[in-house]
Amino acid sequence: MNGIINVLKPPGMTSFDVVAYLRRLMETRKIGHAGTLDPMAAGVLPVCAGSATKAIEFLMDKDKFYRTELTLGITTDTQDSSGRALSFVPPECSDEEIEKAVKSFTGVYFQMPPMYSAMRVNGKRLYELARGGVEIERQKRAVEVYSARVLDINRKKGVKALIDVHCSKGTYIRTLCADIGERLRCGGHMSFLLRKKAGCFDIDGAHTLEELEERRKAGSIGAVLIPTENVFSDIPGYTLDPGSERKFRNGMCVRLREEAFAGREKIDKDRKGDLIRVYDASGQFIAVGTIRSTESGYYLKVKKFFSE
C-alpha cells in the first residue's frame, strides 16, 4: 500500500477523521493527509500511504483551487457559518463593488491566521486555544491569490457571492472572505467551501469514502492508489546509469550527463536548487534531487528517497 488516494472529503468530517477512517480501511498505520480541510468544507483531500507519506511536505507546497460562497453583512467568530454571529451590517454594495473588492485581493497580501485553525503555536493548535476562550497574538503571513473571480451574486436572501479562487499554500479562504467583507464595510463570512484541486489532484478524479469502502470489500482498493511520482509531474525527470545509481543511492553527488540539458525533459542549468525527478537505471522512480553547480560541472544530489 504505497501511493496516494485522491479522497473526496465530505462536509462534517475533519481531515483527521478521514485519515483515521482510511487507516482502518487499508489496515496500515503509515498514512497521513496533505493539507487540512475545515470540517464544514468538502473536496479534494490527498491521503498518502506507505512510502508516499514522504511526499506530504511537497504536496503541501502546491497551489490550491477553491469554490467558496461569501455571505456579506454577518461576521462570525470562526469566519465561517459554523461560528457565533458577532455583527450584522446590511450590505449596501453593488455587484460591481463586490467584484472589484474580490479582484483587489489578487497578488500577494498579508493574511492573519484565524484563531480557529489547525496552526500550531508553542505545541498547541490555535483552535484548541480558541475553544478555551483564549486568543493569542499572531503574525500576519504573506500568501498569494493568483486569481479570484465572482461567478454569481445572489440577493434573494441577503447577499451571497460565489467565488472561484486559485491561491498559494497557507491561504485561509475563511479569512479571505472575512477580509473581502471588511473591505466592503459590511463584514462577511464563508458559508460554503469546496476544494476543487490540490496540486495535480482534481475533484473529477476524487473517490468518496463509500466508494473506497466498496473497493475494500471487493479487494480492489489498491487500484485507486496514485503513484508518488505523479506529485512531481511538473518538474523534469532524469534517469541514472548503473554506475551513477550506486553512487546516488549512497548519498553521493553524481555528475549530470550532457544530454540532461537537452531533449524532452530539459533541465535548466540556470535554476540550481530546483527539484528533479530521479529514476534508477531500470526506469523506476526512486527520489527527488537538486542540481548543484561547481567549477567542474553540474551535479545531482538527493533531496529525498521514495523507494523502500
How would you characterize the overall build of this protein?
- This protein has seven helices and 18 strands.
- The longest helix has 12 residues, at 15-26.
- The mean pLDDT is 90.
- By secondary structure, the chain is an alpha+beta fold.
- The protein has three domains: 3-62 and 200-230, Pseudouridine synthase; 64-198, Pseudouridine synthase (2-Layer Sandwich); 235-305, Roll (Archaeosine Trna-guanine Transglycosylase, Chain: A, domain 4).
Keywords, separated by commas or semicolons:
single chain, 308 residues, alpha+beta, Pseudouridine synthase, Archaeosine Trna-guanine Transglycosylase, Chain: A, domain 4, five-stranded mixed sheet, 7 helices, globular
Molecular shape: globular
Largest sheet: 9 strands, mixed
CATH C-level class of the largest domain is: Alpha Beta
SS-derived structural category? alpha+beta
Q: Please give the oligomerization state of what you see.
A: single chain
Secondary structure tally: strands: 18
CATH superfamily of the largest domain: Pseudouridine synthase
Q: What percent strand? A: 35-45%
Give start-end ranges of low-pLDDT stretches: none
Number of domains: 3
**Cα separation of the termini:** 12 Å
Count of DSSP helices?
A: 7
What's the architecture of the largest domain, going by CATH?
A: 2-Layer Sandwich
The whole-number mean of residue pLDDT values reads 90
* Proportion of residues in helical segments: 10-25%
Radius of gyration: 22 Å
